[in-house]
What does this fold into?
Amino acid sequence: MGHLERVRGQYFCSDSGEPVVLLHGGLVNSNWWGNQVRELRKQYRVVVMDSRGHGRSTRNAEHFGYDLMASDVIGLMDFLKIPKAALVGWSDGAIIDLDIAMKHPERLTRLFAFAANSDPSGVADISGNAVVAAATARAEKEYEQLSPTPGEFPAFVAQIMKMWETQPNWTADDLSKITVPTWIVDGDRDEMIKRENTEFIAAQVPEAGLLLQPGVSHFSVLQDPEQFTADVLHFLRHVMARWAKRRPLERGNRKRHARGSGKAGPGGVRRQSRAKGRKRTTQSRGRPGPARQGCLSGGMRHCSSLDAGL
It folds into this structure.
């Protein structure tokens, strides 16, 4: 299990179906996926984990880094005997997923990356933002409730912020190495990630789809969970078939002429597939309930009661 052996990682999983791994954002925990798990577990083997130092998982003296956290995900997949899975990530979770896609492409089938940045310059100034402040306050309260080190939230935040100040640092060439079907996704009102950086990532990942969810921000998983979950389900159900149809055409085009790498099209973004727009759905909120530890049997019944409100 590699690095995961040196920290106590907490995870939850359902029993059957194609595996889908959900990775949460920075400072929060896997409870924030409650609304998505409720629907996804009906068709997929859903795995959610608290990233190292987050939620119920411990941390050690190693400095936080996306490579290290990606190795934790690989370690958990090895432990659960999952050779490859679809990856769905939000914010830091999306960055971890992109890291895996670049360095361990054999471990994933496809990638849904919401609100990632390619380097620190892609993050907007969020000082004084009320939504971010509310999310951070909730994260602190939950850290105190769930963490093995409940009094160390300030130190934990300082360590994570040090990582954010220097990582990731991906170039167009790095992103072009991703070979799995990918959607780059964000909310059209994201207060944390600059739109141009989202578009940059989508332009560099070969054949990536770009989806902007309407009426939501960095916290789309909570603000409109039905819309977010519907987009994930649509991606999981349809992207593989569409990818299979496009790839032979792409190979044929390469035989006829050299294909531009990373060249911008109209608006500074290469032409890419976009999901059809959807009406924003009514927000639903789960009722708070206890979170349990370990790989649970019974179809992950506890996830239907996880608090998903902000």
In short: The beta strands are 11-13, 18-23, 44-49, 85-90, 108-114, 182-187, 209-213. Residues 2-253+264-305 form a domain with the Rossmann fold fold (CATH 3.40.50.1820).
